[in-house]
Design brief:
Layout: H1 2-21, H2 27-48, H3 52-73, H4 80-98, H5 103-119, H6 124-145, H7 148-177
Length: about 180
């Protein structure tokens, strides 16, 4: 089962790296790849047996991403009430899964709340910024929960998101000013 967990993490990684390298404002493509990646990583947590909070949060994140995808495809902004529901769902789910409030559960909640910021962006640059914050939190969770397959995924995604930010955002803005 551990091998399958690693394979799913790698597939999730490929999907999320693709999302982090997409140029410009094409959030529909970004959200599609984020949905696939989150679903695969969630399943990896579940099969690996170490990160039940991580699995629950990533499955919820997949659902949130697909909802955002439909709003974005219709060029409609996310309603505030929906974002509030996302936050409440994340908090309630993690408390329920953990059987109360734990340090690990709190870390998942904070990481999941930053994920809401990631997928709620209107352009790739802001998405990448919040993804970096999100990946640092998930890497910390992966280390503490000993979810090493997911840690590999999140660490590599962190690296590629920083590269994507440099190539698509920082380098582009320097060229624009010249």
């Amino acid at each position: 089962m551990q091998t399958l967990s690693y394979i799913l993490s790698i597939l999730g990684l490929i999907s999320m790296v693709t999302a982090s390298l997409i140029k410009g404002k094409d959030m529909k493509k970004i959200l599609f790849f984020v949905f696939c990646g989150n679903f695969l990583v969630a399943t990896s947590y579940l099969i690996g047996g170490n990160g039940i909070n991580g699995a629950a949060a990533c499955y919820i994140g997949s659902l949130q991403t697909i909802i955002n995808y439909f709003f974005d495809s219709k060029n409609k902004p996310l309603p505030t009430w929906l974002i509030v529901i996302y936050a409440i769902a994340i908090i309630a789910l993690n408390i329920a899964v953990a059987g109360g409030i734990t340090w690990l559960g709190l870390l998942v909640i904070v990481a999941s709340l930053t994920f809401i910021l990631c997928i709620g962006q209107k352009n790739g640059a802001k998405y990448r910024f919040w993804t970096i914050v999100n990946m640092v939190l998930w890497c910390t969770y992966d280390i503490l929960s000993k979810s090493f397959g997911a840690l590999i995924t999140h660490a590599v995604l962190l690296l590629f998101t920083v590269i994507g930010m440099f190539v698509n955002d920082i380098k582009f803005s320097k060229t624009e000013k010249a």
